[in-house]
Amino acid sequence: MAEQISPTRSALLASKASLKTASGGADLLKRKRDALIGEFFALVKDALAAREQLSGVSKGAYTSLFSAKAWDSPEAVESLSLAGSGDYQIDMQIDNLYGVKVPRISVPERAAQANFSPINVGARTIQAATDFGGVLEAIVKVAATETKLRRIGEEIKKTSRRVNALEQVVIPGIQDDIRFIRSVLDQREREAGFTQKKIKAKIEAKAEAAREAQNAQSHGSAAD
User: Fold this and answer.
1) Are 164 and 76 in contact (CB under 8 A)?
2) What does pTM read for this prediction?
3) In angstroms, rounded to a whole number, what is the distance separating the alpha carbons of residues 69 and 144?
4) Is 40 exposed, middle or buried (0-12, 13-18, 19+ CB in 10 A)?
5) Which of 43, 96, 114, 179 has the smallest number of Cβ neighbours within 10 A?
6) Residue 131 neighbours by CB distance under 10 Å
7) Per-residue pLDDT tens for 80-129?
8) Which residues of 75-89 are buried (b: 16+ CB within 10 A; e: fewer)?
């Protein structure tokens, strides 16, 4: 990169400004990455809790399902599952977390009982339907936390790549440019100083020769 830069003082000033900008950008990105890492680890606890909740309610729901099939017959349970509503509405909004778009999902409160008539339906089947409503709620919570976790993790990786690019490629390249420009300018100053000394020496030598010639001429006139 240094070979493509004109080694002038204006280029040196521009390179110094670029170095300041790149260093400041790296610092900002590192602060953003550190903040995202803090959010990531805080969210890991929520994600683990959501997974644990899903595991717990799933075990209870399947236990209720097996009991319902045993007591109310598989046909009755399957018939009820086909009659149930398939709609499940959630409220989802998008939050901006340090420039990262993450979903914020609000799980609606579900009814304590299943949304069908209990007539001709066994109590164990009703319980199984209610328990699986809890499973659906837990799945939504897991999806919300893990989606947010995944997006934050992706942004951490992206930010780390940018920091590495600045610190390992861009900033060293600018520093090389600055060293190159300074070395050329210093060399030019040394050459200019050497040239000035030579010119000064020549001028002084000519002046000295002129003085000697004048003195010699003055002595010759006095002798006459």
Assistant:
1) no
2) 0.66
3) 32
4) middle
5) 96
6) 20
7) 655 555 566 677 778 888 888 887 777 666 554 445 555 555 677 777 77
8) ebbeebeeeeeeeee
What integer pLDDT is reported at residue 211 of this predicted model? 76
Q: How far apart are CA 151 and CA 104, in angstroms?
A: 12
**What DSSP string describes the chain?**
-GGGS--SHHHHHHHHHHHHHHHHHHHHHHHHHHHHHHHHHHHHHHHHHHHHHHHHHHHHHHHHHHHHHHHH-HHHHHHHHHHS------EEEEEEETTEEEEEEEPPPPPSS-SS--TT--HHHHHHHHHHHHHHHHHHHHHHHHHHHHHHHHHHHHHHHHHHHIIIIIHHHHHHHHHHHHHHHHHHHHHHHHHHHHHHHHHHHHHHHHHHHHHHHHHHHHH-
The residue to which tokens 């009982």 are assigned: 113
| Summary mean pLDDT of the chain | 80
- Encoded amino acid at 143, one letter: A
